Hints:
It is a single chain. The chain is mainly beta. 2% of the residues lie in helices and 22% in strands. The protein has one domain. The longest helix has 5 residues, at 3-7.
Amino acid sequence: MSPEVRNRTAGFSPRLPLLREPRPEGRGSVAGRGSGFPRRSALRLAALAQGCVAPLLIFAGCGTDGDAGPCDPFADRVVSFTAGEGAGFGAEGLPGVVLGPPVGGGPDRGGTDVLSLGGGGTIVVAFDGEGIPDGDGPDLLVFENAFLAGGNPDQPYAEPAAVAVSDDGVTWSEFPCRSDAYPYDGCAGWHPVLSAPGNGIDPTDPETAGGDAFDLAAVGLSHATFVRIRDLGLGLPAPPSAGFDLDALASVHACPE
């Protein structure tokens, strides 16, 4: 969670209805975010009261508009979101705020086009089409908004989360996550995001995109469709931006050249 994220307010009102409306080119509230990527539709949701604990939001068919288009390596649907304590930031932009390409802030500052899960919060997303196939090396990239304190690569500002994958949405395999101390091997939320629309960095390249990489072979799967991210409650309690801040997810081998 960057200082900018901490200082922003979500402006939520409780019990607002779920609205369906077309969304212009791009993703979330950042102008031009989706430039160069397939157009998406979006639902806007504002149904959380600031600081509330663990309301469960279920999204039915919530994501892409079903139009055929270029291969899309990014998450397509939000299946559910269980907000943890101190959540709220970015939820008015659901589901689009976590779909499409990452909007990285680089190594020294966290991006702000994110959804804060809150302490102990959980989100489940789905990949349509090719899903997440197992290939050589990492298969899934998860983008948060970690940054390096003072530019020191050994001192990331991290809000670790556990990542699990499933092919049917019922049986889950969670990656072992070392969350007690740096380096947070197997966790998401501790590598800065370097890729952003327009900067020329491939968001599916584990070597250059930033974010945290996961190999399906590590949990014995050859394919996955669903990803679950669970905040571990180790970040600062700073509502409405508490917990893991999800930017985007990418399937590395979904769009072979």
